[in-house]
Amino acid sequence: MDEISMEQTPKVSIIIPTLNEAANIGRCLTSIIKLENITALLEVIVIDNGSTDHTMKIVDTFSQILTIRSAILPGVNISALRNNGAKLAKGDIFAFLDADCTVRQDWLKNAVLRFKDPSVYVSGAFYRVPDDSTWVAKAWYINQAKNIKSGYVEKLQGGNLWIRRNVFCDVNGFDEQLITNEDYELCFRIRAKGYEIYSDPAIVAFHWGVPSTLIDFYKREKWHGSSVLPVFFKHLLQVPNLAVVLYSLYYAVLSVIFCFSIVAMYVWNNPVFPLLVLLAAFFVPVILTLKAVRYQRCSAIRAFQLSILNFIYGLARAACVVSIKSRNLFKH
After folding, report:
1. Judging by DSSP bridges, how do beta strands 42-48 and 68-72 pair with one another?
2. Which of 21-25, 43-47, 250-254 has the lowest average pLDDT?
3. At residue 167, does pLDDT exceed 70?
4. What domains sit in the chain, N to C, each tagged with a CATH number?
5. Higher model confidence: residue 17 or residue 224?
6. 194: number of CA atoms within 13 Å, CB side?
């Protein structure tokens, strides 16, 4: 792609949802200040979910350096925060960025160059993890290796997602009823409308909010899975995220069987029943790990760690399936 001049540069609105992000928002905005080149046609929209820490005070300290507008919208889902940010935005292109992310210096430049192509409607890239992340983040990142590529993809993450204003309006933005999974569901509707989604690894954002412990990982994946079933049933005929739903159900069923196997072990004084269930529980994570390491080579220790995470991921998603919070299941 050719270089792009200031006159050719569209106006970009960076939309950042926040909630108690005092530990991260300053780092995020600092990375925006350091962006190369074309920042004259840039605005930042911060939509806060009712933070009780110093998030918005920190945002205010950047108002003399960046063109920032902000609003407070408590008690809504992140999808509603992003939609309201889009309503305030004046840009030709919306760049959705998470508050716990930072961007590489060429993030804006590379994205604008990509959008110079009129056939590009939606772009961005999957997160990368900081170099000093824990083994949990680094091992889980192996699963993303297959997504770090240039070309058309089914989905991109909402925290590093670029979309033309007219396309965002055409698909009516994010579904505000969804607690999570709103980015996947938006990408599903974008493609259903006939727009392609282009992944460009040069549009680099680092995710600092990745879980650092196994407990954090479990909690995060349980939260992330809370809207998987609603999305599935909303688009039932097209069976989106079917693999994730099946994986969740697989572990939900195994969990029930495991409980019965413990009873059977005491009744027949034979430990083979729970052992067989555990074998089945670890078989799929190992297979998924073997598939993942085809895209990114890693050590045997890292592969073992990823297998453990795939197992915990299954347990977390199974907990979502049986959770009472699935009352939102048929809202759509």
Report:
1. parallel
2. 250-254
3. yes
4. 6-212 (3.90.550.10), 233-328 (no CATH)
5. 17
6. 2
Contact 270, 300 (CB under 8 A): no
- 279 burial (CB, 10 Å; 0-12 / 13-18 / 19+) is exposed
How do 197-199 and 93-97 pair as beta strands?
unpaired
CA distance 295 to 95: 28
Give dist(CA 137, CA 116) in Å, integer: 34
Beta bridge partners of 17: 47
Six token digits for residue 143: 């699963």
DSSP 11: P
Find residue 46's DSSP bridge partners: 16, 70
Q: In terms of C-beta distances under 8 Å and separation of at least 24 residues, what long-range contacts does 56-59 make, across chains too?
A: 56/18, 58/22, 58/25, 58/26, 58/29, 59/18, 59/25, 59/29
Which among 204, 173, 197, 170 has a CA at the least distance from the CA of 186?
173
How far from 8 is each of 30, 38, 41, 90, CA to CA, in Å? 26, 10, 10, 17
What residue type is assigned to position 108 of the chain?
L
Contacts of residue 303, defined as CB under 8 A and 6 or more positions apart, other chains included, come to 289, 290, 293
Entry pTM: 0.86
pLDDT, average across residues 50-62: 96
Distance CA 303, CA 104 (A): 28
Distance from C-alpha of 317 to C-alpha of 222, rounded to nearest angstrom: 6
Q: What secondary structure does DSSP assign to 149-206, as a single string? A: SSEE-S---TTEEEEEHHHHHHTTSS-TT-SS-HHHHHHHHHHHTT--EEE-TTS-EE
Q: What is the DSSP letter of 128?
A: B
Q: What are residue 123's DSSP bridge partners?
A: 162, 198
- pLDDT tens by residue, 226-266: 777 776 666 665 556 678 888 888 888 998 888 888 888 88
